[in-house]
Structures are given as structure tokens and as C-alpha cells.
Amino acid sequence: MATLLYRLGRGALRRRRLVVALWLVVLVVAGLAAATLRGPTASNFTMPGTESQRALDLLAEQFPAASGATGTIAVKAPADVQLASPQGQAVVQELVKQASTLPGVVGAVDPFQVGAVSPDGRYALVQVQFATGADEVTDAQRTAYEEVGASAEAQGWQVAPGGEVLGGEPEIGSTEALGVLVAAIVLIITFGSLVAAGMTMLNALIGVGAGMAGLFALSSVVELTSTAPILALMLGLAVGIDYSLFITSRHRQNLLDGLSPEEAVGRAVGTAGSAVVFAGATVVIALAGLAVVDIPFLTVMGLAAAGTVTVAVLVAITLQPALLGFAGRRVLPRRLRPVAADGTGDSAPDATERTLAETAPNEDRSGFGFRWARLVTRFRVPVILVGLLGLGLLALPTPDMRLALPDASTAAVGSPARVSSDLTTEGFGPGFTGRLAVVVAGDTPQATSAAVPQVTALLQRTENVLAVAPPQLSPDGRTALLGVVPKTGPTDEATETLVHEIRDSVGGIRGADVLLTGATAIGIDVSEKLSDALPIYLLLVVGLSVLLLMLVFRSLLVPVKAALGFLLTVAATFGITVAVFQQGHLADLVGLDTPAPLISFLPILLIGILFGLAMDYEVFLVSRMREDFVHGESARQATISGMGHGARVVTAAALIMISVFGGFVFLEDPVIKSMGFALAVGVAIDAFVVRMTIVPAVMSLLGDRAWWLPRWLSRALPNVDIEGEGLRTHLTDRTPTRV
Known about the structure:
Structural class: alpha+beta
Distance between the termini: 27 Å
Number of domains: 3
Number of helices: 25
Shape: elongated
Low-confidence stretches: 343-362
Strand content: 5-15%
Largest sheet: 5 strands, antiparallel
């Protein structure tokens, strides 16, 4: 593979104008397609096969008037007014009338008719039924709904429209640009050249722009959840900058070795590019592997992010060499350009002796990476023990992790959904923000009529049920819908227990199908299915990491060590995220208003993404260790050499990823905030604690045993040539291009 990429890099540089033109055409065409074909994103999380989803499908078929999105308008009278007074009734009736005549609304329910008035007579809930699902409600309809009650508010009333109809797409604001700005600063410091930093950033932005445009163009035929594009943007931007950084760094070193720009680019793409392709492939495989859990919205999220990563890899190995060709030696700081041009620096030995940046005898090994590696390998046992103990302590909150879909009670303070939720809780209790719906469907109207009283009686006797609303019947009388109000909130453990108790109690009704649904029940079903899939997916990812690294490093112990390090990263990341977002420790630092269970798909998504990134850093550090070990250095010296050469680049790459992911922490949406935080923390732990501290200590402890592989297994495994051995042989048979 390295030889193929070497030729690709040189070809891209030679035809750089054509390559740049082709990518610009791709960017423009994808942008036009996105502008004309972009479809709406979905804010709901469907889960085929679950009881709650079957109930929704049944309603859509037999009771379509009750299958659309619902809204709840919370009303609070002024301190000196009672809702039962003539003034109060007049205001409420006007609100019901306004809501009933809104575009897209089937009808609104008078709270006096259904008893949706608080015991103190100051709060009421107006139920609003829309004709379509929440994702089909237009912005104009949603805006009109939010403006209901403006005249009442002018009279001192509190009117807060809420409900699932307010769910919308998270907005990307200026705060994420802070992460990109920090990444640019890191690139400038790392390269010491505005040209190199700017070119790397431009390359990544073109890649993420093309990837995102293509994703939005496909949204007209593929249903995207509202978080899928943001995840794709977050990951595509981070890996795009990192992959370009790796290739540019190797290219600069090759220039300092005295190679011509064309030869330097070719070798950079052949070596660092091989690692980029491998790292990108692991991320893509892990994200695409989300399909094995058979959850449609998660599959789409994984494939969307995998698509942007694929584009980032293609851009890095084609467009980046072309841009480097335009830059020439300007990618180097001014003080180093004469050294590269003359080929007289200490880092310019004969290419046959140092074909792929092998360690020269007179090479400067006094940098921080070398000093850190010597320190870690000298005190390897204490370093390992302290690292394991520290990560173990960080992982302590992990067993307490709870998963749920977000509800209005965790929305940003001051948002319409949060205001409505808080007002409802204030007047009626938390259960009214997470009402359940029981669907009773019989073959005949008589069967349904006979089953409804039995179901109602069972529901009223169930512990933790606050109230059961009168049934709503479909026009043909075969389907009934009963509202159930729990005593506890939608993400409370007691509510989850109640859902299972209701299903157990009404499952034996004869003559009718009885199904429990509603946003709360859907969230519980989604969380449970994801929790069940998590161990399977984790086992798949760990097994995949062992297999892939065995191919790369021709070793048994190195892959096992890498997999164990990945598990440490995941456990510690989960622990910190639970402590902040679920338990509320230091929540103010991330701008979190209300601690709550983690979003259901965060753990499984985090495992997939961190797996790819962990393998990325593992390859860049350990491949150099193996390279030097194979060429005669001792295991300890090879470990020090690998760390010394890779520490600067891996540090810069990790800081860039942390900056990009961290930029999303400043969004108001708690889901995106938690995703950005978890990814930033995970990258920091994996890069600085696991890969750059524990890994060299363990490698030093293992010594030569780290590279042992049974002969029969070595013969059975294909040679993927990530380290460029084939390229090394190819280059030694030809005269290198010198300046």
C-alpha cells in the first residue's frame, strides 16, 4: 500500500492544478446539490420492533387523528386571579380558540372539560393535536404555535407553549469557531509557518465542506436525525485537520532530509499517508459497524460520520500533496529553507542510509519527546501503576451511568420548551411532562369497548400512576387511546419501572391488543435496546482492534496492550462524563443547566469514534518503534525513538481534536454539549495518559517480547505494509531525487 500511495502522492503533485480543480468542482457541485435537494432532519428517534413503535404504527393506521405531534400549552393565572373566575375562563377559552385555528392543528382540548386544572385553580394545560408528525410541522406552523397567548401575556398571564412539536434542529453558532481558531494556533506553533498551517487548515475545510454538502444533498432521500450532521461536522473537521497535519509534518521532515518537493511529497504520502488510510479505515469501520446493532437512526448517524471521514482521507492523500506542490519549501520556517535547499543540514544523510527518515547517528535527541520517553521508560513500573490507579479512579462513576432520551426538563434554561416544562412541573408535578399513552385496539368496536374498562381499572391500581384520562375513540370505535400520568418525571427510574409494570399488567387482556407508547415510553425502549447492544458492539470493536493491529505490527502483545488501553480510555471517559452531566459535578464549567441521564446513544457512539482515534495515535507512535526495532535498535531505544519522533505530532493532533470537539461544548443543546465534552475528554485521556505515557512504559517493560508472533501466524497474516517496507525496498533500487 505504501508504494501505491507514494506514486499517488507524486502524481497529485505533478498534476496539482488538475487535482485542485477537480476538488473545487466536487465542492461546488455538492454545494449546489445540498442547496437544492436538502431535506428536513428528524428530531424523533424511532425504534422498529419495540412496543412503543408498534403502538405508533397502529395509531397511524387506525387512528390517524391521534398519531400526529402533540403540543401542551401551560397557562398560569396572575396571583389575584382564579381560572374558574369569569375573567379566567374567558382567557382560557380564547387560548383554546386560538390554538384550534392554528395552521396544521386538528384541535385543542378545553382544560375544564378534561380536568386539566391544578388543585389551586391557577394552572391549566391546553392539549393541542397536530395533523402531522413533529418532523413534518413547518417552521411557520411552529412559530404560530409559539406565539399563542401573546394577548394574555400582556395582561399578566404566563402562557408557555411546549410539547414534542417544539423539537427542532440544533443550531451551529459562532462558539464552534473558537475550536477551529485554537486548532489554527496549534498548527502555527507546531509548524512555525503560516503557509503550512494555513494550507493544512484549508485542506481540512475543503474536505469537511465537500463531505457535509454531500450529506445534506442525500438528506432528501435518507432521514437524518438532527444530531447526525453535527456529529459528521465535528468528526470530519477534527480528523481532516489531523490527517493533513500528519502528512505535512512528514513532508517537511523529508524536505529537511534534502529531498526535492516531489520526492518529499511522495514519501510523505507513502508513509504518513499509509497510517492516515489505516486510521481513517478504522474510524469508518467502527462507525459503519453501528449498523450491527440494528437501530436505524444510529446506523444513519454512523454512516453519515463515516462518509465525512472517508472524504477527509481522500482529501488528505490527494488534495494535500497538490497544495504542498504549490507551496514548495515555503511550508518550512524561513530559517530552515536554506538548509532544505542546500541539503547540508544534520538531518540530510544519504537517502540510501535513511530512506524513510530513519534515525541518523548525529540526530538531536534532546527534545521533549525524547526526554519524556526516557523518564517514562526509566520509571516504567511506577508510571504504569499510577496511570492505572488514576484512570481507575476516574472510572468510578461509570457503573452509575443511566441512559435516556432528552426531554424538555433538560433543555436550555429560557428556551420555550424548558419554560413550558418548568411551568407544568410547578403547577401539576413532574409526571405531567412525561405522560404515557395506552393504545387499546380490538377487532370490533364491542371488543374495544369491553377491554377499555378493564385496562382503566388495571392502570388506576398500578403504583406510581397519578391519573388516567378518559379514553378517546377512533371514528370506527375499534381503537381507544388512554392518557396515563405518572407521579414521577420522564427520566426518573421510578417511571421506567412503571412502564414495565403497566406492560406486565395489561398484557393479559383478552379480545384486544394493549400497547404502551408516548415519548417517555419510546425513550425507555430506545435506551434499553441501546444498553443491550453496547456489550456486543464493544466486543466487536475490541476484537477488531486486536485483529487490525496484529496485521500492522506483526505482534500478539502489542494489539492486546492497545485494546486494554482503549478500554481504560473508554471507562475513564464514561466516568468523567457521568460525574459532570449526570451527577452535576463542575457542571457550571461546561454551562450545563440541569444534570440528567446521558443521551442513550452517547456510549455506543463514543466507543466507535474513540476506537478509531485511539488506533490513529497507536499507529503513529508504535509504528516508528517497530521500524527502529526492526533496523537494529534495542527494544528500549526503539521505544524512546518512536516516542521522540512522534510526540510532537501526536501532541499537536490531540490538541487540535480536543479544541474542535471542545468548541461544541459551548452549544446550548445538552446532547451536542455532552458529545463534544465526552469526545474531547476521551481524546485527551487516550493521547496523553494512555498512548504517550502508559504505552511506552509497557513497551519498555515487555522488551523484545512485545514483537513476538508465532511463525505460523506470521505466514497466515497478509502483509499490509503500513510501515512502508515495500516502499523502502523500492527506493533502495533507484537513485533518489536530490537537490
